[in-house]
Amino acid sequence: MNTPTQQQSEIRCTILSGVHQLFTRFGLKSITMDDIASKLTMSKKTIYQHFKDKDSLVSEYVNGFLSTQKDEINRITKESKDVIEEMVLTADYLKETIGNLNPSVLFDMRKYHPASFKIYLGYKEDYLVDKISTTLREGINQGYFRKDINIAVMAKIRLEQVEMAYNPDIFATEKFNIGDVQIQLFDHFMFGICTLKGHALINKYRQIED
């Protein structure tokens, strides 16, 4: 028999799982606490016993999403044979996960949930910039990336490319698939920084995927 603490933990996990599905599919602003309760066939009172408000739910959603992404990127890095394979596999992973994310999530977070957006910015600056910079440095040492690239600048550019795909003023959702846009931006970035040796390896991995 589950203890009260275990039961509370299970209820909390159930709530977060339902929230993840709703926010990922529909964005943050459009989902109300009533929608969440309906999705979970659970009373709002029960939800409020575990989360004080929607803001706290959004924060947990963002933390969980980013934590999962970080773990997967680290796993890919550990298991990749070289930086080209690492970046190709990471791009494929992001295409799959981010491609299923409602484009409004980033905008909603920035405008309506500043605490959660601060979490995202911290992850972006503290983890992603350092991760990309390290990969670029290793790629230069391995002879796959050009020696003359500015690592700090290119790391920032890569991050902004990922966000650019979510800007409806640039890529209207009714005209563009976000996952496909991400791959196009990734290829543009990679072929710009790679040496001929790097180009050959990218093409090799792409042929394997095909």
Number of helices: 10
CATH topology tier name: Tetracycline Repressor, domain 2
Distance between the termini: 50 Å
Average of per-residue pLDDT values:
92
Estimated helix fraction: over 70%
Q: Tell me, what's the shape? A: elongated
Strand content: under 5%
Count all strands and give the number. 0
Q: CATH top level?
A: Mainly Alpha
Order of helices and strands: HHHHHHHHHH
The CATH homologous superfamily corresponds to Tetracycline Repressor, domain 2
Low-confidence stretches: none
Total of domains: 1
CATH architecture type: Orthogonal Bundle
Q: Structural class, judged by helices and strands?
A: mainly alpha
Q: Describe the biggest sheet? A: none
Rg for CA atoms: 20 Å
